[in-house]
Specification:
Blueprint (H helix, E strand, L loop, with lengths): L1 E7 L4 E7 L7 E5 L2 H16 L13 H11 L6 H18 L10 H11 L5 H20 L27 H12 L6 H11 L3 H5 L6 E2 L4 E4 L7 E4 L2 H11 L17 H5 L6 H10 L9 H12 L4 H8 L11 H13 L8
Antiparallel strand pairs: 1-2, 2-3, 4-5, 5-6
Keywords: DNA integration, DNA recombination, DNA-binding
GO molecular function, one term: DNA binding
Pfam families: Phage_integrase (PF00589)
Length: 350
């Protein structure tokens, strides 16, 4: 029901109407005429009774409040590496847009200005990650928290990312790298790099391995916390031998590669960081200055493909939910096929 309160002033009379419907907080608005007040009240009552009413006052939530809820309910359910990245991006977004900025005030033009400024200092890929998190925050706020707001990111153009860099080692380069890793003072570097070259695992996946994940009899390991779904990774006999040797010195440590530092939160969030200094030194000694740790994954994937592994099997080993990422390696397969066809020339068939 609606109730009108008439206020007579020196210059004019106003009408404040209050709408009360069971299940909703009361809502009021002031008009210059009684007719306008009644029309508005009728519309509000109809929306409430049909459960279509969205209280605009609920949108008055700050970015800080929204992200606190998002990090607690959404981010906390993800892998540790993803949690750290999203918390870092959320902190950045709150600083750039303002912690106390209301969600409705973050408009498409505001987001576009942020995008353009960020592109002056960071890569397009980094900006896309930041916009993706902001967009998902608004999607959650709108659809699940039922806030009467629009997603401002949806209306702007996101920066295009150039095709990913694919660099892989040649056989002699891989041999040089492993030789230098074996000579490293970090005695776990060699088996760590070896497993990357033989399995195509992500550096963080391999670095954070625990012994209970490895099945020596079946020559496989299971990854539970991954970028996509849990998956089983087959292991070569060379890797099994290296892991068996490593286990002899493991004592009571549950981690395969991390030692005591494995208990720290940072090490578990970004485990591969524990190998970067020694890896960089080995890389320099092997005269491979352009090599990144992630390139070992590309190297293993390309070798599997050229050895005859089909695309779908390779996607399963790599942990890709779609074939799109794996198709980046098809140019290698095409080159391999050309070499095979060229062998016909040696047969002298004309």
């Amino acid at each position: 029901m609606a109730r009108i309160l008439t206020r007579k002033g020196k210059k004019k009379t106003t009408y404040t109407i209050t709408v009360r419907v069971k299940g909703y907080e009361s809502i009021s608005r002031t008009f210059d005429t009684k007719g306008e007040a009644r029309i508005w009240a009728a519309e509000m009552e109809a929306e409430m009774k049909n459960q279509r009413f969205k209280d605009p006052r609920r949108a008055h939530r700050t970015l800080d409040e929204a992200f606190d809820r998002y990090l607690e309910t959404v981010t906390s359910q993800k892998a540790l590496t993803t949690q750290e990245r999203e918390r870092r991006i959320a902190k950045l977004l709150k600083e750039k847009f303002g912690r106390n900025t209301l969600l409705p005030d973050i408009t498409p033009s505001v987001v576009a200005k942020y995008r353009d400024q960020r592109l002056k200092s960071v890569s397009a890929y980094a900006v896309r990650l930041e916009l993706a998190l902001l967009s998902h925050l608004f999607i959650k706020a709108c659809k699940e928290w039922e806030l009467p707001i629009e997603n401002p990111v949806k209306s702007i153009e996101r920066p295009k990312v150039p095709k990913g860099r694919i660099f892989f080692l040649k056989e002699d380069e891989a041999v040089r790298l492993l030789k230098e890793c074996k000579a490293s003072r970090n005695k776990r570097l060699y088996p760590y790099v070896l497993i990357l070259l033989h399995t195509a695992m992500r550096p963080s996946e391999a670095a954070g391995l625990k012994w209970h994940q490895i099945d020596f009899d079946r020559r496989s390991l299971t990854l539970y916390i991954t970028k996509n779904e849990p998956r089983t990774v087959p292991l070569t006999k060379t890797v099994i031998t290296a892991l068996e040797d490593l286990k002899k010195t493991a004592f009571d440590n549950e981690f395969v590669f991390l030692k005591g530092e494995g208990k720290s939160q940072h090490a578990q969030n970004i485990p591969s960081s524990r190998f970067r200094p020694s890896f960089d030194r080995a890389r320099e000694r092997a005269k491979l200055p352009l090599l990144h740790m992630h390139d070992l994954r590309h190297t293993a994937a390309s070798q599997m493909l050229m050895a005859g592994t089909d695309i779908r099997t390779l996607a399963a080993i790599l942990g890709h939910s779609t074939l799109q990422m794996v198709l980046r390696y098809t140019h290698l397969l095409n080159e391999h096929k050309l070499k095979a066809v060229d062998r016909i020339n040696s047969l002298g068939i004309e």
